Amino acid sequence: MAHYKAADSKREQFRRYLEKSGVLDTLTKVLVALYEEPEKPNSALDFLKHHLGASAPENPEIEALRLEVAEMKEKYEAVLEENKKLKTKLAQYEPPQDEKHGE
Asked: Coiled coil where (predicted)?
């Protein structure tokens, strides 16, 4: 009987731990979302993985990479714009294509 109480106590501690850390609430929300889904997905496990992954806290490294990508996109757009302006400027100084062939 003592073994049963020890196991029960460990389960209760684990349940409190899951409750305190928000795991039970998150799992409940995801399962409710699955239950309320009008068309059930083929893979309930994939549904859970997708929804749990979406609500997971951001990894700082991933956020840093996202910021870097955003900065690179801005720089890329600026370089494209500069390239366009320089091509226009260069075209003013180059003779038209027809004149080059005649020389």
From this structure: 62-89
Which residue in 62, 66, 33 sits closest to 47, CA to CA?
A: 33
Rounded to 5 degrees, what are φ and ψ at 38? -60, -45
- pLDDT at position 99: 56
In angstroms, the CA 1 to CA 56 distance is: 40
pLDDT digits (tens, 9 = 90+) for 63-101: 889 899 999 999 999 999 999 999 999 999 888 776 555
Residues 14 and 49 in one domain: yes
Q: How many domains does the chain have?
A: 2
51 shares a domain with 68: no
Whole-model pTM: value is 0.44
Report the C-alpha gap between 68 and 70 in whole angstroms: 5
DSSP alpha helices (H): ranges in 1-103? 2-20, 23-36, 44-55, 60-93, 97-102
Same domain? 49 vs 10: yes
